[in-house]
Write a structure and sequence with these properties.
By secondary structure, the protein is of the alpha+beta class. It contains 8 helices and 7 strands. The longest helix is centred in the last third of the chain and has 33 residues. The two termini are 33 Å apart. The relative contact order is 0.10.
Length: 292
């Protein structure tokens, strides 16, 4: 991060989210994104607005002609880390608003903080409004063993996959019901949740592939099912690619065929998660988390 950002981030973390200078008295959060090309992590202090328990940030960049780098990053990698005052860091999905919803929320933000309206007047680009969606808590609140951790991760993945299906169904219904683009606003939301799911699934399986050899060595009865899981990871990676390709064509897809294909891919992914839990949970429940 830049030296200026570093000083603000240090002060934020040292004082429970309270800072001085230009941010004194304002609502500030820290947003950590992954570089769109480099994959490096970047942390930026940003003003935020909370509306009906939803957290929003605006890509104002002070009215500059181009979007800020953090916005480009989250379009490529929707999984971000958010630090709010007085709260623990949390993983969130960054979803830019579109269409009428974006305009409605931006009007409310400008009503509360008129400076954003001034920034919009200074540039021809439409200032992005991004919701930082915190996934609901599933499974045990705290993981005492590796089985609990596996359930946490899998339940989060299932929740994101369910979000993709609900949003795709709403999008297609809105698209087919009208000749206008009334449903187009969901397109970016679908894309962000799909990317979040696919990236998280890939990260999860990469970590497992690193852990599995040691697990098989310590628990010989798991050697055969682990070999099957490793093979299934290759299949799941193919399914992940098919899911991304399917959702990329949602704007022109036949509704019935699209949903049937989405359900087929979902069933394949769910079957893998179910087999992994049935195979590993009895053993992982005896291993503390974090592992000692």
């Amino acid at each position: 991060m830049s030296p200026w950002n570093e000083a603000v981030v240090t002060e934020f973390r040292a004082n429970g989210g309270r800072v001085g200078g230009r941010f004194a008295g304002g609502d500030l959060l820290l947003l950590t994104t992954k570089g769109e090309r480099s994959g490096h992590e970047y942390t930026n202090p940003l003003g935020f607005v909370r509306i009906d328990d939803r957290v929003f940030v605006v890509g104002s960049a002070g009215g500059a002609p181009e979007h800020p780098a953090w916005y480009r990053h989250l379009l490529a990698h929707p999984m971000v880390t958010v630090e709010l005052p007085g709260e623990d860091p949390r993983e969130s999905v960054a979803v830019p608003l579109e269409g009428g919803e974006r305009d409605h929320v931006f009007q409310e933000i400008v009503r509360r903080l008129p400076g954003y309206g001034e920034y919009q007047e200074q540039t021809e680009r439409l200032l992005p409004v991004v919701e930082l969606q915190h996934p609901p808590a599933f499974g045990p609140d705290e993981a005492d063993n590796l089985a609990d951790k596996l359930v946490q991760v899998h339940t989060w993945l299932r929740g994101q996959l369910a979000n993709v299906r609900v949003e795709a169904e709403r999008y297609l219904a809105g698209r087919d019901a009208s000749a206008t683009d009334s449903g187009v606003g969901l397109n970016l939301q679908i894309r962000q949740h799909c990317l979040a799911f696919c990236e998280s699934l890939h990260f999860h399986h990469t970590g497992e592939d690193t852990m599995f050899p040691g697990l098989a060595e310590g628990f010989p009865h798991l050697r055969e099912p682990i070999e099957r899981l490793v093979e299934e990871h290759r299949v799941v990676d193919r399914v992940r690619g098919e899911l991304e390709a399917l959702l990329a064509d949602v704007a022109t897809a036949d509704r019935a065929r699209f949903m049937a294909e989405l359900d087929r891919l979902t069933e394949e992914l769910q079957a893998h998660l179910d087999f992994e839990e049935d195979t590993l949970i009895p053993t992982l429940s005896s291993i503390p988390f974090p592992p000692r």
